[in-house]
Write a structure and sequence with these properties.
3 helices, three-stranded mixed beta sheet, two-stranded parallel sheet, alpha/beta, 104 residues, 7 strands
């Protein structure tokens, strides 16, 4: 269902952030589904990784004000998987406003 990065016990879209942005960007119309994007963890392979990082997501054709910011945790330095709260905070949900045949 698109949110497989979340543990089964936390797969509740109502508690996730909603964005004004749609897919395709700027399209109004019938909601055909939704896509969730989760960037909750990083694994650094460099000798001196940064203390923190962020990832930006902006769909092609979207406006800069709709950019998504993810702040994943470094699982190598923390020694544990991201918490349920981190997973929720690092997930953005986009409503799909076109049929799957046009979207893919």
């Amino acid at each position: 269902n698109g949110n497989s990065c979340l543990p089964a016990s936390h797969r509740n879209f109502s508690s996730m952030p909603r964005l004004a942005s749609s897919l395709p960007p700027g399209v109004d119309g019938l909601r055909h589904g939704e896509i969730s994007v989760c960037v909750a963890a990083t694994v650094w392979t460099v000798e001196a990784p940064p203390i923190s990082c962020s990832a930006r997501l902006l769909w092609w054709g979207d406006r800069d004000e709709n950019v998504c910011i993810f702040r994943p945790v470094d699982v190598a330095s923390s020694g544990s998987a991201p918490s349920a709260a981190t997973m929720r905070d690092c997930t953005h949900v986009f409503e799909v406003r076109c049929p799957a045949t046009s979207f893919m």
